[in-house]
């Protein structure tokens, strides 16, 4: 049987606070997206999602892409890049057009979208995404494709993601310094949602919590679109730092202990299980004092480790709960939570989050890709996989449209929210 022919290459680069990863995917003539090569390097120039060392970040990007190119056996020039900094802001803009009962033509849709582009107020920020998500006929019926239908009024909800300009410029400069062309910078929650969430979940309502190394992104989806976004400047690397500080060990050993022995749930056996550690400087007395009563020479109990982990997780989940409450996540649209990111790989994290948040929680892993390496199939690589899916779908973005001069009515937030809630109630 002949192998599918690759028609288009898509390269994604996820620049995070802990790692820089790259993925080269090929869209085949059968419509599948197949993984051809991957690469990964430690991130040394990014903190809390922002570039703090241009040279180190540029070097990491170059080495990561070169590794992926060797595996794929091809050279690439254009890439899709993620941005997960805490300056991301999400909004929904709704514009409306009078149709007078006429049939909706393509020109009507184009004029509506072009005018929607003019209606976006970035307020000094950069528009990362401006994508139409849902059309509405007569302020009542939500449709995906209104072409050919009769309507008195036609409106569209436009999902807008904004970010501060300086961090984006630094990110773009680092990637171009590695001799790569940037197709687009994509908000990490947007990419992650494509990889982890089904269309039905996004339509009925779901919260996506991405527990990254330096930042925890909380996104709320409802009515098929991203309606809320908030970044918390705490992540899984803070747990590593807590372990290193509590037991007087290096960060590298703390990360290893967290990955091999760490858990978000404690049991009775943890008080008997001992873990070997090597304190900085090798001083047993100093280490014992730093590790507390659960230390025994060069060893600690697993219970002590889990206690340190849970203390930081309690803080993170308290912040997440506050953010979800502020987004109105106490309605039927907020019963499902999807947890992803590198921190979601910790043992017992789903059960812990379910108890802390009081909602059903599942771990979000990337899907929709073929030949995905097992090492890249976990939640830590959801954003990277989502970037590849985003590049392959190349969604409509109003930023590329030419402006149009049309008279429309701007609809305030309560109107689009009421329409969305009507659509959600209809599904229950």
UniProtKB/TrEMBL annotation:
Cell division listed as a keyword: yes
SUPFAM superfamilies tied to this protein: Actin-like ATPase domain
Membrane topology: Peripheral membrane protein
GO biological process: FtsZ-dependent cytokinesis
Gene3D superfamilies referenced in this protein's UniProt entry, alphabetically: 3.30.1490.110, 3.30.420.40
GO cellular-component term (any): cytoplasmic side of plasma membrane
Subcellular location: Cell membrane
Assigned keywords, A-Z: Cell cycle, Cell division, Cell membrane, Membrane
Domain spans labelled SHS2: 10-196
Transmembrane segments: none
Primary location group: membrane
Presence of the UniProt keyword Membrane in the record: yes
Family under the similarity heading: Belongs to the FtsA/MreB family.
Role of this protein: Cell division protein that is involved in the assembly of the Z ring. May serve as a membrane anchor for the Z ring.
Quaternary structure note: Self-interacts. Interacts with FtsZ.
Xref: NCBIfam families: ftsA
Protein's recorded name: Cell division protein FtsA
């Amino acid at each position: 049987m002949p192998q599918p022919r690759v028609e288009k290459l898509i390269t994604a680069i996820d620049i995070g606070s802990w790692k820089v990863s790259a993925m080269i995917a090929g869209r085949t003539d059968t419509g599948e997206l197949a993984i051809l090569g991957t690469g990964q390097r430690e991130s040394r120039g990014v903190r809390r999602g922002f570039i703090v060392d241009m040279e180190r970040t540029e070097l990491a990007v170059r080495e990561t892409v070169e590794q992926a190119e060797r595996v794929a056996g091809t050279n690439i020039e254009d890439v899709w890049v993620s941005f997960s900094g805490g300056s991301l802001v999400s909004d929904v803009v709704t514009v409306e057009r009078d149709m007078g009962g006429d049939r909706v033509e393509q020109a009507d849709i184009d004029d509506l979208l072009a005018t929607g582009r003019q209606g976006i107020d970035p307020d000094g920020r950069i528009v990362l995404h401006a994508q139409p998500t849902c059309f509405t006929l007569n302020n009542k019926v939500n449709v995906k494709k209104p072409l050919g239908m009769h309507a008195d009024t036609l409106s569209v909800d436009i999902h807008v993601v904004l970010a501060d300009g300086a961090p984006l410029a630094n990110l773009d400069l680092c990637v171009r310094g590695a001799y790569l062309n940037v197709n687009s910078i994509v908000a990490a929650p947007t990419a992650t949602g494509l990889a982890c969430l089904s269309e039905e979940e996004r339509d009925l309502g779901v919260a996506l919590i991405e527990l990254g190394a330096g930042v925890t992104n909380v996104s709320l989806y409802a009515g098929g679109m991203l309606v809320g976004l908030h970044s918390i400047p705490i992540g899984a690397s803070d747990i590593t730092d807590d372990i290193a500080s509590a037991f007087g060990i290096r960060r590298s050993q703390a990360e290893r202990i967290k990955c091999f022995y760490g858990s978000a749930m404690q049991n009775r056996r943890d008080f008997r299980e001992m873990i070997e550690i090597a304190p900085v400087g090798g001083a047993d007395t100093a280490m014992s004092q730093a590790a507390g009563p659960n230390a025994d020479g060069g060893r600690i109990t697993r219970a002590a480790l889990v206690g340190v982990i849970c203390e930081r997780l309690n803080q993170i989940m308290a912040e997440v709960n506050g953010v979800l409450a502020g987004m109105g996540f106490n309605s039927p649209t907020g019963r499902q939570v999807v947890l992803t990111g590198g921190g979601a790989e910790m043992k017992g994290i789903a059960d812990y989050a379910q108890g802390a948040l009081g909602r059903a929680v599942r771990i979000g892993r990337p899907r929709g890709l073929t030949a995905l390496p097992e090492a890249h199939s976990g939640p830590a690589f959801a954003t990277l996989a989502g970037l590849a899916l985003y590049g392959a779908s190349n969604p409509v973005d109003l930023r590329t449209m030419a402006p149009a001069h049309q008279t429309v009515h701007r609809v305030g937030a309560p109107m689009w929210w009421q329409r969305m809630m009507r659509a959600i109630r209809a599904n229950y």
